[in-house]
From TrEMBL:
Belongs to the ADAT1 family. Specifically deaminates adenosine-37 to inosine in tRNA-Ala. It holds the Pfam family A_deamin. Residues 45-479 form the A to I editase domain. Keywords: Hydrolase, Metal-binding, tRNA processing, Zinc. SMART domains: ADEAMc. The keyword Membrane does not apply. This is tRNA-specific adenosine deaminase 1.
Length: 499
């Protein structure tokens, strides 16, 4: 969507100053634009940020209190889920909403003609940032890469029936982009302090945004092939690290694998491996299973998918399409979304990595990624989060309180879902849901009730590219709403307030 970049950047400019970069800092912003036949396009969800927590901090979060990943694209998707919950609450009380009851009476659907379009000010970290660059001229465009990891992380283990990994086909044609960064290491480390995880970011020129047309033909499904560095081109890549282990490979081999297109990657940390998959991999997953997630699939069972994805900076159409859609080889794989590159999008806080970027003289010199993140959705408030802790800005590092939790954390998302199940008329609830029992059921068990969603997810995780998807420890989703938010009576009172 051609207007998505300007709408998202305008919305970001209108948000409060708290949580935005200070002089010498940069960030990435992503937003989701709603388009429908009955109204002009508008931004309904927005996120900014560049950080994620290390594996050790994620494993310690057993009550769903922290945001593990505050990269911009992930924040925008979290904000979209909050927006959809708000729309379901409106529908439950008979107010105008973009969701309408399904024909069979069980659950809701998004109204006909409604589309969601994503814009990110930089190429999503991971596979979408792995492209071929045109030699030394792109040296200033190098994407920041982190120090190598030191220990192993947990991976998804597919069932015995999973198909064997496919041999790598030819990669899609490379496009221009930044030069090679330092090589990712072979195995993921367990980390202690929070880790910085800069995504692939890129600054723009000052001309008005213009999205390039979608790629004409997608590359081969499941493409995992090295880029053609042997043809006199350099290989540029994200700082994200390939998941597949190569414990015995030498430094040269590891550097070569950094240029492999199509593989799954985790987000980088400052010397500490994270268990957060790259934004490219998450976009592929949302494309395969639906952007609304497991909880909302219980009330909106039809998969919601992005109609288009537009990226700013030095993004490549081929890499973007490969990362999001061409690697998805499940039996129910949907048609690829439209992809576009927004050239000349002037984002004030873009990473100043490219010669074409213009920044005031007072801001020249070394820059660093902003550690804060913003999350906003239409109908809600803007919230600033410390990306190094996953808690709201201002939270005391020494003493945790429930008021420090961000509105999109798992604990508060579960509380809001439990309220929603009580507020929604019973005849609109699927038979699997007992509104009265929700507060005593674990977060993981409630997600498991969305059987169609879980089947799509299983097919996705068993595909050759994503067989070693890194997952958080099960204990991170073993909590119940009653455990972390209080007794069911409080939920029922809060739910009655909705209607």
């Amino acid at each position: 969507m051609e207007v998505a970049p300007s709408l998202v950047l305008d919305q970001y400019a209108q948000l409060p100053r708290t949580g935005k970069p200070q002089p010498g800092e940069w960030t990435v912003v992503a937003g989701i634009v709603l388009h429908s036949p009955s109204e002009a396009p508008r931004v309904v969800a927005l996120g900014s940020g560049t950080k994620c927590l290390p594996a050790a901090a994620v494993a310690a979060d057993t009550r769903g209190s922290r945001l593990h990943d505050t990269h911009a694209e992930v924040g925008a998707r979290r904000a979209l889920r909050l927006f959809l919950m708000d729309q379901l609450e409106r529908a439950a009380r008979g107010a105008p909403s973009i969701v309408v009851p399904r024909a069979d009476g069980r659950g809701y659907d998004v109204a006909a003609g409604v589309e969601f379009h994503l814009f990110s000010s930089a190429p999503p970290c991971g596979d979408a940032a792995v492209v071929a660059s045109a030699g030394p001229a792109a040296a200033a465009a190098q994407i920041e890469c982190e120090r190598p990891p030191t220990h192993a992380a947990k991976r998804h283990k597919p069932s015995a029936a999973s198909p064997p990994a496919a041999s790598p086909p030819a990669a899609s044609p490379p496009a221009a982009s930044p030069p090679a960064a330092s090589p990712p290491a072979a195995s993921p480390p367990a980390a202690s302090p929070p880790a910085a995880s800069p995504p692939a970011a890129s600054p723009p020129a000052a001309s008005p945004p213009a999205a390039s047309p979608p790629a004409a033909s997608p590359p081969a499904n499941g493409s995992t092939a090295p880029l053609p560095a042997e043809q006199g081109k350099e290989c540029a890549q994200t700082g994200a690290r390939p998941v597949s282990p190569r414990a015995a490979e030498g430094e040269a081999a590891a550097r070569g694998r950094a240029c492999v297109a199509g593989v799954a990657r985790t987000k980088p940390g400052r010397g500490e491996r994270t268990c957060c998959m790259s934004c490219s991999d998450k976009l592929a997953r949302w494309h395969a299973v639906g952007v609304q997630g497991a909880l909302l699939s219980l009330l909106i069972p039809t998969p919601l998918r992005l109609a288009s994805v537009t990226a700013g900076g030095r993004a490549s159409l081929d890499a973007l399409l490969r990362a999001i859609a061409s690697r998805v080889t499940t039996p129910s794989a949907p048609a690829a979304p439209r992809v576009a590159i927004a050239r000349g999008v002037a984002f004030e806080y873009a990473q100043p990595s490219y010669p074409s970027h213009r920044r005031p003289a007072s801001q020249e010199g070394d820059t660093r990624p902003c550690s804060n993140a913003l999350l906003w959705y239409s109908g809600g408030t803007c919230e600033a989060v410390n990306g190094l802790t996953g808690l709201r800005m201002g939270a005391n590092k020494r003493s945790f309180s429930p008021k420090h939790r961000a509105q999109a954390c798992k604990a508060l998302l579960l509380r809001r879902f439990c309220k929603l199940c009580i507020a929604v008329p019973k005849h609109h609830l699927p038979p699997e849901i007992s509104a009265e029992a929700m507060s005593r059921s674990s977060y993981a068990s409630i997600k498991g009730l969305a059987t169609a969603y879980q089947q799509r997810k299983l097919e996705f995780l068993q595909s050759s590219v994503f067989r070693e998807w890194v997952i958080a420890p099960p204990v991170c989703e073993a909590f119940t709403d009653e455990d972390v938010n209080g007794p069911p009576s409080e939920v029922q009172e809060a739910a009655r307030a909705i209607v």
